[in-house]
Amino acid sequence: MKVTRGQIIARGLTNRCPNCGGRTLFEAGTFFKTNKECPRCGFKIERDEGFFLGSMSLNFGVTLVGFLTPVMLLAYDNVIGTTFAIVLAGLGSFGFPVLFYRSSRSWWLMNYYFFLPQHLPANRATPETRGDENT
Ligand SMILES: [Zn+2]
Q1: How many A from CA of 20 to the centre of ligand 1?
Q2: What is the mean pLDDT of residues 25-42?
Q3: Residue 31's closest CA among 96, 107, 111, 100?
Q4: Ligand 1: distance of its center to the CA of 24 in Å?
Q5: CA-only gyration radius of the chain, Å
């Protein structure tokens, strides 16, 4: 296997192409627009409709666990005031998912290829190894 799981994680955490490590998954000058394919290797980034629904779930979960729960716990322990916590949670529940959008897309691709690294074009079986589909 040419691309290891460690490389897939490193590339996923830095918004790089999981196949070649090229920058970046997103169109230059835009924040939300994903490239249809990697400009360096041609790896198809845009998938079937619904593929990135998982990234929305991931974004929701990270917002809930990584932002809203700590705010709630800080308010519960009286570290911050209740009114401030409500305002912070209200603003953060919209702002955090926007800021985490790019990472959630990249992490979702990372998650997919971490468990199915043989699906990466760089790891596809060569004619010599084609006998075993799981390699
Ligand atoms: Zn690439």
Answers
A1: 4
A2: 90
A3: 100
A4: 8
A5: 19
